[in-house]
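Dear colleague,

Thank you for sharing your sequence with our group. We've completed the structure prediction you requested, and as agreed, I am returning the results in plain text so they can be pasted directly into your records. Please verify that the sequence below matches your submission; if there's any discrepancy, let me know and we will rerun it promptly.
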Amino acid sequence: MNFVCRESGSLLFGKRFFQISNHKYGCRLFSHRGLADKYQSKAVESNNINEEYVKCENESNKTDQQKFSLILPPPNVTGHLHIGHAMMATIQDVLVRWKRSQKYDVQWIPGTDHAGIATQVVVEKMLKKVRNVSRHDIGRKEFLDEVWKWREEKAGTIKHDLTRIGADLNWSREYFTMDEAQSEAVKSAFVRLYDQNLIYRGNMLVNWSCTLESTISDIEVENVEVTGPTRISVPGYDSPITFGEIFDIAYKICDSDSEIIVSTTRPETLLGDVAVAVHSDDPRYSSFRESQLYLWHPFRNEKIPLVFDDSVDKDFGTGAVKITPAHDKFDKEIAVRHSLPSVSVINEKGTICEGFDQFSNQKRFTARDLMKNELSRRGLLRNIRPHNLKLPVCSRSKDIIELMDRPQWFVRCEELARNAIEAVATGEIRIHPDNFKKDWCKWLSPSHDWCISRQLWWGHQVPAYECTFKGKTIWLVGVSLKDVEKKAMKAFNVDTVADIQIVQDADVLDTWFSSALLPFSAMGWPKGENFYERNYPLDVMVTGHDILFFWVARMVMLGQILTGRVPFTDILLHGVLCDANGRKMSKSLGNVITPEQVINGATLEDLRNDIQKSYENGVLSLDEVKKSIKGQLQLFPKGIPQCGTDALRFTLCSTDVTSHFINFDVNQCHANSRFFNKIWQAARYTIASHEQLNLKLYDANDLKKLELADMDRYILSRLGNALLQIDNALKSYNFHIATDALKRFFYGDLCDVYLETTKKNISSKDSGGAVHCRVLATCLSIGLNSLSHFAPFVCNELLRHLPKISEFQPEEWIDNALETEISNLLRICSAIRQLKVDNKVIGKHAPVVHLYIHTQSMYDSLRPFTSHIAKLALVNDVVLNDSSRIVELEKFAIKSTAGYECSFGIETNHLYEADNGTSELNAKKLKKLENELEKLLKRVCTKGYAESAPQDVQAKITEKINKLKTEIESMKQLRHHG
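Please find the predicted structure tokens below.
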């Protein structure tokens, strides 16, 4: 595996450093050593503004390159990108940059989604707030003009935000889900599915928002837990409505003085009752089974039957439930089984339908109160009790959802779902993480038909037309009016359309329908152009697990039926982004933050101003503003520190993105900006070292020709292992493993270890110093190229000042035996430094460490590195002894162990005043080691351990037990001698 780095274009002349590059800002003169004193994200990012990535058609069809294609899940044109969008875009951008570094022909297509309901709602709020008008006041045409203006503004904002976070997208192929090309794809898909009898028009109960006057999808329904009587604000009502009650209502038995008490939480639908149902085995009603029993409807003055059905819950209320098939799915199923009629009660606007006397035209919850009063007056209301329930609420309008039985357009999903299940079962499509395969099958089997029509103004108008000729009406579909006219003439067997009335359906299509086509429509389908043929199917689809069914499954279903192929081979599902405390980000908690706020930083006043702007634009209500301000004060009492884009990206990828919930901590993000400063300082040190030794920085020697010291070979081995680990992590979408490998290499291996060991030779201008300079430059150049997938801005800036390394093969440099030797050395250094800290030993105490090594092999391996140990442990000198002289430890007041092979003591000068803390610290350390040993011994003694644990695992545990026993014995000897 080769890692190819970019050309730096840097030249060094004497003590002045010049930068020559093709950067669009031209040549720039840098200060001494080429870099600022410290890393400043704002300055770095302004110098590395991401230029739009544009490829011409010829370049995007390179048949000699392996292709990698994907689309950006389109953000809704409702506002700025939120932090969840930033995570999704960063994940994809990392994959894109990684694949480009491997010389893939990459196509990453950006776009935005018209988001029918969400956008219509937010624009309506804006109009109400700014102009005090509704969409009905200004009419459909003017309203749509306002939406398009909104879209143009927000699309530009989204593009800016994506560029700001470094998303290297192919903007020449940018799409909008309602642009001309996407509109043609939507119409073509609808017609093809209709012609295959996979789309039909029919009546079915659908989720209905009376405020929107439209059907909505299940994903836009929030089931709110209501515990007992609760007052809830409902759009269109001046005062809150009480929910969380159950009503017991008496239904009189015909020709009898008896009655049946029915329990319901929805008395306003009582007008649509067509029966009362009880469980077949309910003993309370067994006497009524002998013959058909009828009851008097309380208001309609007509008989309704008592029916027996095993689906009725005997424990709900009195066990008798009213059946209202026009407004309840459960009731409709019973009505179908018992051939009962359906009576609609509530209309599209949320008022009671005509024909119900004093209740007609009343708002549904106003009618509820009227009915309660009338039932009470008639002596039929027996009781009102507290009741816990789940209240379906429209997430967009906050209205209470009604189920409506009305004509809609549907996609038949049974066959499509079966094909989608098979694609995952056979491995044609791979889901990451694979535990979602169960959810895939669960959601798709059995699969209900998909309602794809919406009664909105904003969206793709359904390409279906109601055609009437001589009193006969039929529905026809077509990609254009002209297409439909031809079909109508043929259907009615006439030569002209003059006498045929043709009216297009006013409804629009569900946003998920157009979005489901994106893997192929964004690539040029249905035209079948070369770009489409080259880049479809996509290689990976990255999106949130919460829309696995609503979007991903539908992309697969429609992709298979319309293109004959799966739309992508891999599905990477990321979790829901939460705040540092694990709470979902929401306006009510005030914990919603934007990428811009993290990148640039924001004072508490800035955060409040952003909330105020959202309120002025009608996005937030006054109540939401108050909650947001309160939440921000608790979460960000000092505002948000400036972190920069690179730190944001790196932090977002530093947690397992496939976790169900992902916590985002701004403080961790700020810490990562300090990590980049550490690398920045390493680069400055490298440049300065080259200057000091009069070396040309751009001269990239073949390292194999240099006389490398052990530490040189060690850091190159660590680099090789890090590169392989990063590559393997990205292959499996484990971004957090890759970022951890990068952090360990740059922080631990390069900066804290290797760089420190180079200072002596470089300072003395020893011949080894020149080699160190070459190794430093190589490690930085190659390491930064790998880090650039996650942090492009700071890496691009630093790489301008470093040599081009044309080729580096990690496997050739890995030396695991050497790494083991150095890791032992580092473990000893760590133990020494910790003991110094615990005993408050500092530089003025002139500490000298005396090491006592228990094995000859360890003694031999450490002997060449005593000067390195002194440097890394921050002591004046290191004296190496074998175990025969261990009795000398008695004379040291400060002593401990560094693993099972080494004990040591620290000698100090007269300035140090020893206390009795060391023995106490060693006692704690001994206890800790004994506890660790006890846990391992319990594990190996567990029943079945020998049979179930793999042999290699058992061997490692046995080895660890023996090492612990040895170190414990050493610790006991120290305490005895002490």
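Summary note from our side: The longest helix spans residues 135-164.

Kind regards,
the structure core
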